[in-house]
Automatic annotation (TrEMBL):
<dbReference type="InterPro" id="IPR029016">
    <property type="entry name" value="GAF-like_dom_sf"/>
</dbReference>
<dbReference type="GO" id="GO:0003677">
    <property type="term" value="F:DNA binding"/>
</dbReference>
<keyword id="KW-0804">Transcription</keyword>
<keyword id="KW-0678">Repressor</keyword>
<feature type="domain" description="Heat-inducible transcription repressor HrcA C-terminal">
    <location>
        <begin position="96"/>
        <end position="227"/>
    </location>
</feature>
<dbReference type="InterPro" id="IPR021153">
    <property type="entry name" value="HrcA_C"/>
</dbReference>
<keyword id="KW-0805">Transcription regulation</keyword>
<keyword id="KW-0346">Stress response</keyword>
<dbReference type="InterPro" id="IPR002571">
    <property type="entry name" value="HrcA"/>
</dbReference>
<dbReference type="GO" id="GO:0045892">
    <property type="term" value="P:negative regulation of DNA-templated transcription"/>
</dbReference>
<dbReference type="InterPro" id="IPR036390">
    <property type="entry name" value="WH_DNA-bd_sf"/>
</dbReference>
<dbReference type="Pfam" id="PF01628">
    <property type="entry name" value="HrcA"/>
</dbReference>
<protein>
    <recommendedName>
        <fullName>Heat-inducible transcription repressor HrcA C-terminal domain-containing protein</fullName>
    </recommendedName>
</protein>
<dbReference type="InterPro" id="IPR036388">
    <property type="entry name" value="WH-like_DNA-bd_sf"/>
</dbReference>
Length: 240
């Protein structure tokens, strides 16, 4: 995917981050009023029209604002997302958890899955494949509180996905990942019933539990930076 011009890229970056925070379509007026850019309203509108024409933005229903498309999220993940560690507070929470359960290894996966779900507000899980598959997953209530799930059809689709979480985890294991979290947006997901969602997953090996997958699934409007950094930190600094 070719890089956008600096102006369009900066505006797209603003739109995605604002939409992740607020779940509301973004208008040119909203961008202008933020005083983030020294651009006229007309210039902002023209840039948004270009992004619209190139498939990075779409208009939901009759709203005057725009929201990111799958193409926009992919551009963000590949070009704009920063790769940084978790915050100081997040590290402290994770480190306290490890110290509490280190002597009870069998509880480690359960607690990590629960903690990740709490921290990122999404459906998170850890699956191990060493003999009998084992899956620990939490966060369904949290993810259903997101505004996307006011749409009953999405709620049904996500519930169906959760019902088949064992197959989802196996599909993650089949995919070949780099030594970092992998992001799958919408139709990039390889499993059925996930075309309207995004997932972030990372493989690792554990001496006791064998080949493992840690993952998070939720709306495409997820905080990819935070989810990726937490998964990476858990695997490399906590479990590894």
């Amino acid at each position: 995917m070719n890089r956008l011009g600096a102006r369009e890229e900066n505006i797209l970056n603003f739109i995605i981050r604002d939409y992740v925070r607020n779940a509301s379509p973004i208008s040119s007026g909203r961008i202008f009023e933020s005083k983030t850019f020294r651009l006229s309203p007309a210039t902002i509108r023209n840039a948004m029209l270009e992004l619209d024409d190139e498939g990075y933005l779409e208009q939901p229903y009759t709203s005057s604002g725009r929201i990111p498309t799958d193409k926009a999220y992919r551009y963000f993940v590949d070009n704009l997302m920063t790769h940084k560690g978790p915050s100081r507070n997040e590290k402290m929470v994770l480190e306290d958890l490890v110290s509490e359960v280190r002597e009870r290894h069998e509880m480690l996966f359960e607690n990590f899955a629960r903690l990740l779900a709490d921290e990122v507000g999404l459906f998170c899980g850890i699956a191990s494949f060493n003999g009998e598959p084992r899956i620990e997953a939490y966060g369904l209530e949290k993810v259903f509180s997101e505004p996307e799930f006011y749409d009953r059809n999405l709620t049904v689709e996500f519930s169906r996905l959760v019902d088949n979480i064992d197959k989802v985890a196996e599909k993650f294991l089949e995919d070949s990942f780099d030594d970092r979290p992998s992001v799958f947006i919408g139709g990039e997901n390889q499993f059925h019933d996930a075309k309207e969602f995004s997932s972030v997953a990372m493989k690792f090996s554990d001496d006791e539990f064998g080949n493992c997958i840690i993952f998070s699934i939720g709306p495409k409007r997820m905080n990819y930076e935070k989810v990726s950094s937490l998964l990476n930190f858990v695997v490399k600094d906590m479990i590894g």
